[in-house]
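Researcher: Please translate sequence to structure tokens.
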Amino acid sequence: MVGDLFTDHLFDLAPTGLMIVDQAARVTRVNDAMLAVIEDLATIDGAARPSPRRRSRASPGVALPPALREAVGHVLATGAQVADLEFPPPVSEEGLGEGGPDRPPSAVVAAGRSWRLSCHPLRDRDGHLAAVGVAAIETTEQRRAEAARDRALGRLRLLSRAGELVGASLDLTTTLRGMVKLIVPDFADNCELYLAEQPLDAAAPPSQLALRPAVTANTPMLPPKGAGPDPADITYLDQGNPAHRAITLRRPILFDVDERVIASVHQPRLAEHFAYIAVRTAIAVPLLVGDAYYGTVYLGLGMSGRSYSDYDVETAGELGARIAHALANAQAFDHERRTAITLQRGLLPGGLPAVEGLDVEFRYEPGTAGTEVGGDWFDVVPLSAGRVALVIGDVMGRGLTAAAVMGQVRAGLRAFAALDLPAADVLAHLDNLVGNLSAGPEAALVSCVYAIFEPATSSVTVANAGHLAPVLVSPGGQTRLLDEPEGIILGVGGGRFTEVRYPFPDGSALALYTDGLVESPKIDIGQGVERLLASLSSPGPPARTSLPATADRLLTLIDRAGGYDDDVTLLLVRASASPTTRSTTVEPDPRAARAAREVTGDALRQWGLDDRADLVELLVSELVTNAIRYAGTPSDLTLRRGDHALYVEVADRDSRVPRLLDPSADDEGGRGLQLVAELATRWGARPTSTGKTVWFELDTDPGLALV
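Model: Translation complete:
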């Protein structure tokens, strides 16, 4: 008796809901805690509410809610228990954590409490199923804690992904579009971002904001339509718009979209736009960095039936801060990029000199708007006797530093080129120069190809310092990658540079380029070079097509759809005329000077330059006599008829370079080079790998400037 009373007392007063259901699915016993559970479940399912009358030993007339009745029926039919039923399914208390856009808010509003129920078979002494015992434990606080945790984790994920977007690209448009795509539909049904033409003072904003639509996105629930407000249309916001209050308070403002708010906006197709997006509540987020106001982003809800909480307003503020800093960084980057491009373009050749026997075409394009300018450079430098240096290079790094280093390197190279040194020697001097330059915290590194075109021999001599190999195209269209010689990149130090001479007859072409032409995020450098070789040989090689058209065709190799992120520099040259030359070997014998004069006179008569024969023979005699007297080895005399000048070179095996002296009245020698300097248009001497070459030019057409 006492035991039964104690059991009854525990059953009635237990905080856990307890209930017994017989084999006919009738409630035979239930405590007050379970009655509260049944009342909540009945409210959710729409069933009749149980009577609030207290029941303890027997409870006839208590109706089971449909979901619970189904579980009890399963136990009665199978004899197996049903454990851990959640009523209702887990939801949060409020805000956007209410289960997302696919969960109707009515279920959440009705669910004030939540429960976990279990149904157990109750058997008699013979093991037969006699009834079903139902136990219920309240999980409301647990679910609220879980919902709060999920909201916090969702916010962290959202802000983390937003932070990744800000740092993923330097292209502002790409960043903003990615941000809007992230926000809709997870955080908003509609997102519209408006930007000021230039940052405004947040402490004293104008009475009417003039903003330009930047990016917009709508929930997929809406039928397809245009992307949003036209960026060409400026939107004006009166002081009644929440954007003004958000600037003043320096925080997001939650507001209802009513007639007053709509009237504060002035833009074309206003009524049509608001009717389409169907936003009923929104957050206006000011885009502020310090006292600089960059624009406003609106986050709206409507079609999904969701609502914003204070927690969501805080999250919107965090998103706005990331967008604002992206705008500030993009503006600073754009300013630096424009400065770097201006500097680089100013340091690159503004135009190219006319070179006899050589057609020259170049192209330079900075990377896409989201990348820093690189250190690409090129040059065409006239040398002695109608020769010309062809140069292309790339400074490792980006931005103003790379552009500044490029300017120093190009200036140094032109100085070394003026010394008329062999190609390998120029790179050796340039290596020393680059080694003494600094590029920020690290040493400067520069790749470079230095090639010398020699019209007298129809050849090109190439020296390479760690740059991409040039491409030589024969007159017939066969391509050859000039991957020899190989040299270490400039700035490393300790490298040895060599040079190789290649035939370069009329119709041949040489392509010098930087890696931006042949490499992109989607194309590796090997594939890019193969595409370049194919493009240079078809549909028509440079010998049979115009050089500008060939250069434009090569630029189509750039992967613009993939977003090329590097500068592109191309220098394309083509031999355009066969040289008119005469050469002879002069023995180290004084009598050989006469033979040299005869060869010279004969060549000038054939070229129709009889009126210059006496002068040229005199100057040739002086150079040949010097070679015979001081070199003591056979020398080579080369004469070349140019379009507007005559070029004469005497090469010997003596490395001593002659100097122009100032002899006194009593000196017997030293006047030969003075005579050459006075009578020739230009003259000079350059070292070679086997000795030296002394040369002079004589203008044959005084009405035209020499190259």
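Researcher: Any highlights?
Model: The domain at 580-699 is CATH 3.30.565.10 (Heat Shock Protein 90).
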